[in-house]
């Protein structure tokens, strides 16, 4: 099989495919033929060295494929099952603990940039029933993050309003999940073209934040002055004050990303005088992935696929990904 | 104006319209021209004497109409607003207290079987933006009950499965809300005709409980053996054991009605060995009604209207209602 | 080592100690020298054949002891650690699933009536820091059940009132946890002697249910007519209607046991007109056991130990247990 | 009666008592003889002009006293009842709305710096059963804020660890509530004398933050490296990064105050990589005040009273309060 192993001194742009031999699954393990991976900011930071990893690590947290062989005492899957990886294999359900961070595929343990992966069975869940491998591969990081922010922490209800910032992977899933649950959806972008695409995906209202720098107040006006119920906050210091401005009294902000920088000036009285609830989200548990997949099955949801690359073009894939131009989840096929 | 006043010795079938003069709204009050009412089992029990009430009481808990005049210091409404009554005007939000039972229109205080009603402004919320008066009038009792059972107590998520029993008012709202929130919906009925109507409204699966007396197990099978996540239990002793049988481990049963009788033999080990959660629901708060109406607005939901009667035919309306033959919410127009 | 193995045809009273050789721990396993076990109704039903089990099964779900050896890749424990077993080793956290029922020590897998137990490390948690082995052994079934009922499902707050029925193992833990959390506690018993003991343990009010058959109403009166917030319901059909009567509007009943029989006549309108919340509890997860143990550590709580037997007297222990005369948790020492 | 009315141009230090005539209670109103008030930062900001108010406003949000007369249709109180004011009289229960901010005694409506107050009955709750007027007067702002932060939003459990910053009014209540609920309590101060007083009140661990500027990490170490479960954050920008550092994965920070300034540099990745939950708290609802008072009654809790001034010395009282030297809640007696 072919796979990618990172060198400690590696930088993006010089990932090389090497040959190796797949192992046979031991007790509790499954051998999965990986058919698709998706690209995430987390992967990019590992490959670029911003997040340290071990020498020889196989990158990429998100993979989907087909079970080729199963070891002893595996009853969750059978040969031929379509499966998808989980971001935190040791986080089964409930609240997170420090321990779940020990096992992150593509960072602290081997990931899925490999034609075959032999892993403990609990590193996978079943894939959605009617999804392609490409579609399934978009779910573990971006999909579960949006699900956790809106469903677990947000408990979004029909008729509430959700504000998503931009059109990155998490924002697109948040848009789709918000519409699935009967919520109203406001989306922002600086590109008229992307705003049009967001509307085609179901956004009820869109705001061009370049033309409307006070987009927080604008979003609030779009709710008759009541304020939005939830913000999926991917911007960080450059956007969070506008996100707070957009919120209703008691509104919820799922803090997920830092596209505008790591830290910045934040007003504390704005948080308590509006009784804002901020939840820091980092992906989610296996149980949340399973719930999300049930929802995808029941609603025949189609993840938004962006540019697709063959495995051999992994360097180009990350170069394009880092440039951030595509709409929809960038993926690789094997 | 014309209205109905119950006599202590009254029984259904002899309701008479009488003439009276509407009052002008005092401080904090509004005068509403009632344009439609809906009929509920609760009203029928009050009229029939099963639920005691005061001599001269105006019956009916659910009314919708237009604000004709407002008293001093009313800022929630203005003249011309379309409004709808609330079942528990003193239950603003949060958990119920005994005190909220003191004010139940049509039972402990005057209801809406009247061409005009002069009441404190907090006895109403705004009606849905695009609903007719008839549609709005279906909401306070049946709509809020279904909303509270599924949304407040059930916290239904997309991809979960909801089981509704029969096609009464609460069950139809539960069906519509479950589909609105992206859930799967299983419905039962003994009539093939009603099953077909339930499917047209969005039921994913239907079960004829006359042909399949073990409909609880059948519902569980329809979830690949996992069990349903929520049951909207309107049957009571004759259905609850099947409802428990239908549930997944940790499933939720919203107990709402007793169509099959008041009490009966229930197995306790079935409750704890499946870790079932049972919530007794009696309508809900003003805040829940407002949330439900936001959801109705956002999703342009149309309540299912059944037979509609002119106000003069209130006796016929209740005779038909008690016979239970209609599909959809029975209403009166003024 | 000595241990007990059940025969398929066995009945209580003829348990025999046999000799066997302990295994060495494999990867992920620990070898624990069991120093104490507690007795639970669940064990009694397995031994008596009411709950079926496999031939040769080692009974008892609750054991505490010392880690003697650890296998490869075990990092949760080290040699010498005091540990206590968990009732559902496969239930890590969050909501229950059917799968957690596959592994129940003393029923579907081997339990702890054995001088040594070699098990996967996740079958144990650390014991409380200052508890004896006897005290620790009382926790997995009765302690976690009370914790789950009051803390996870009840979310008991200081100043709320908790009603416990009788003085069985779960009721005593519920009493202690309720007082630990600043709640008021009402306890019932038919024995004046036990009522005095319950008061010594912290019960604020006690009711002799033999002298006061309407103890539900009595409990409600003891809350100035508001009703209790939580009932820990161990009686089942013979007590639940009084438990409902005791509750405040919106009150919570944790259904845990069936000391008065398996099924009986229950009034459904009493549930919904008081908006009662009933939660079926069957022990709880590993995360709940860990939370409970943190609480025991922080509050230096001492479980109430009843009669203690040497391992050799296991038959006498269960004979006395089934007669139900003791106050406090019956245990065995090795 | 004597009372204080603010002048638009007033500043602290020139409050004057003036004479006025109490009104008789109208329908729904009660006349309360105010016997004690407490001083809060909110009052100080209104008096000092930082929070704008109307000309002639009677300041102070927190008052306790005795019901002297009741108007028509008041059934919540009777003459002679000891009552205490609420901070948001229009916030009955459940989630906050913008509307609750319209009625804030001492800011948007008249407060309690007055020997008598004639107000709608729902502006008060019953006082704790065994508290003095002074003790009751400490509750509406500081007590309810701590209760809401820990109990409503934090859902603190026994055995969890709570970190409180300094020894202000909210922090002392948080300490007392945390101990009431069986939690561990870590407190900080820069004064050894205050640390000793915090320990006498029940703090399990104390940290002198002047000697230990990395008090966040220190607090985490005091939990064996797991991190605290809750922080009651009164410092704002100067402390919040240490508060985040102190937290366990998934920990909760109740953001309540800004003693160190209004805004500052905050790291967003620290929030999401530790999955921190931040809740902005601004006092709470009437239902929360009632729950807190039930807890105070059940646990005979004594609020910590600091310096007490006669009403005539209101200027001195605020001068001392603004200097911030006292330990315990500063109050005035009438």
If you had to describe this structure to a student in words, what would you say it looks like?
- 4 copies of one chain form a homotetramer.
- Chain A has 334 residues and is an alpha/beta fold.
- Chain A has 2 domains: 2-138 and 303-333, Alpha-Beta Complex (Quinone Oxidoreductase, Chain A, domain 1); 144-280, Rossmann fold.
- The first copy, chain A, has helices at 41-47, 133-137, 139-153, 169-180, 192-200, 215-221, 240-246, 268-273, 286-299, 314-323; strands at residues 2-4, 17-19, 29-38, 63-70, 82-85, 116-120, 124-126, 161-165, 184-189, 205-208, 228-233, 247-255, 263-267, 277-280, 305-310, 329-333.
- In chain A, the strands form 3 sheets. In chain A, strands 3, 4, 5, 6, 7, 15 and 16 form a 7-stranded mixed sheet that branches.
- In chain A, helix 10 (314-323) links the parallel strand 15 (305-310) and strand 16 (329-333).
- The longest helix of chain A has 15 residues, at 139-153.
- The mean pLDDT of chain A is 95.
- The interface between A and D is large, with 38 and 38 residues.
- Strand 14 (277-280) of chain B pairs antiparallel with strand 14 (277-280) of chain C.
């Amino acid at each position: 099989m072919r796979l990618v192993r990172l060198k400690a001194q590696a930088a993006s742009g010089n990932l090389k495919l090497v040959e190796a031999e797949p192992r046979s699954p031991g007790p509790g393990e499954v051998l999965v033929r990986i058919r698709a991976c998706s690209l995430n900011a987390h992967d990019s930071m590992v490959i670029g060295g911003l997040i340290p990893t071990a020498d020889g690590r196989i990158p990429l947290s998100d993979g989907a494929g087909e079970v080729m062989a199963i070891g002893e005492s595996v009853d969750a899957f059978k040969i031929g099952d379509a499966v998808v990886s989980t971001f935190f294999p040791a986080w089964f359900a409930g609240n997170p603990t420090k321990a779940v961070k020990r096992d992150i595929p593509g960072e602290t343990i081997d990931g899925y940039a490999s034609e075959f992966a032999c892993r403990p069975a609990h590193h996978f869940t079943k894939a959605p029933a009617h999804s392609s491998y490409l579609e399934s591969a978009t779910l573990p990081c971006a999909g579960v993050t949006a699900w956790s922010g809106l469903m677990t922490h947000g408990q979004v209800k029909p008729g509430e309003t959700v504000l998503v910032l931009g059109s990155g992977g998490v924002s697109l899933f948040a848009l789709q999940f918000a519409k699935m649950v009967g919520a109203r959806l406001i989306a922002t972008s600086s590109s008229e073209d992307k705003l049009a695409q967001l509307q085609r995906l179901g956004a009820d209202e869109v705001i061009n934040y370049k033309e409307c720098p006070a987009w927080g107040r604008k979003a609030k006006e779009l709710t008759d002055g009541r304020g939005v119920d939830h913000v999926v906050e991917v911007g960080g210091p450059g956007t969070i004050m506008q996100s707070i401005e957009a919120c209703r009294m008691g509104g919820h902000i799922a803090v997920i990303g830092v596209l505008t920088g790591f830290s910045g000036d934040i007003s504390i009285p704005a948080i308590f005088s509006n009784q804002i609830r901020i939840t820091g989200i980092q992906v989610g548990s296996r149980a949340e992935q399973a719930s999300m997949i049930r929802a995808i099955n029941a609603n025949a949801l189609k993840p938004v696929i962006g540019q697709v690359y063959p495995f051999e073009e992994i360097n180009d894939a990350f170069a394009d990904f880092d440039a951030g131009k595509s709409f929809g989840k960038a993926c690789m096929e094997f």
